[in-house]
Amino acid sequence: MTTTLKGTTAQQDTNIIPFVPTGSFYFSHGIQAFQKRRFSAAVKWLKKAIEASPDEALYRCQLSVVYTEVGSYHAANQVLTEVLADFGKEYVDCYYLMANNYAHLGLLSDAKKYVDTYLEQPGDGEFEDAAKQLKDMLDSLEEEDEDDDWAFEDEDELLIYQETAFYHIEQEEWDQALSVLEEMMQLFPEFTIAKHKYAYALFMNGDRDEAIQCEHAHLEKDPSNIHSHVNLATFYLQEGMSEKASFHIERLRNVFPMHEQQKLAVAEILSRAGYYKEAVDRFRMLRDKQVVRRRVYYKWYSIAVYHTGNPSKALHLWEKGCKQFPKMGEEGGPWKQE
């Protein structure tokens, strides 16, 4: 009986068709993982897809997109460079993707070169509208560089003023912050961030109407000013005017600035406004060490993380913030939003 069963099993085994995973099989799993924001798994599956189908350029391009999403911009551009080298220049979308990565890295001349190359290609590319927006932004930044806020002979002095003002703001010492910011605005009139920090300190010090008027005046001169929209959204949320706040918040939800200070400002207001998932995504993009040591980073990132279902990480961020800024400990914790 045992012999017969073995014979039957052996005979059945010969009829089994082995399953050999293809590149498309791995790729589909990679896409599913990416859509669920399981980025490590997405990278693993996409690398398997590339190993199985090394001649499929799409798989490599998708891997670059995952790298971009997690902020590994150099790795993304390395993959895209290999695609262009191996498959030729017909994969024109690579130029836009590389331009976008260079922009995130702050390498604006390289970003401009690649976005121009993309837009010079014949036909309508998949990213044409996005590329035009990126080019407009880069051109605008190039114009600003001619009169750059940071292009001062006394950059060290400016940095000292800036850090002193930030210190007083983070310690909620509004009178001292206003005094320093007034001096900054006199000495460095082109350093526009000081004007917005001044309006913020004014509001927190009780001069709310004047602060709101200041920011509306700035916004009239520059309707797309990120710091003005952030401040006004903050002010109106504090005043309980949610409709007026949402006007400015909606204009920020689709804005992805290049400067780290602006990135932090947008992430903070999204968390303040209750867009926690979007806020977490924005906080994850921050790389600058000075920015990720700010009080608002610890506080509002912690709050956003807590409300997206990760209390242990939220508590870790909050505790780090409290060590650096003891007054945070008086605010209860990330579960107690203002």
UniProtKB/TrEMBL annotation:
Keywords per UniProt: Repeat, TPR repeat
SUPFAM superfamilies linked: TPR-like
First and last residues of every TPR repeat: 23-56
PROSITE patterns noted in UniProt: TPR
UniProt superkingdom: Bacteria
Residues in the signal sequence: none
Name under which the protein is recorded: Tetratricopeptide repeat-containing protein
Species, as recorded: Halobacillus dabanensis
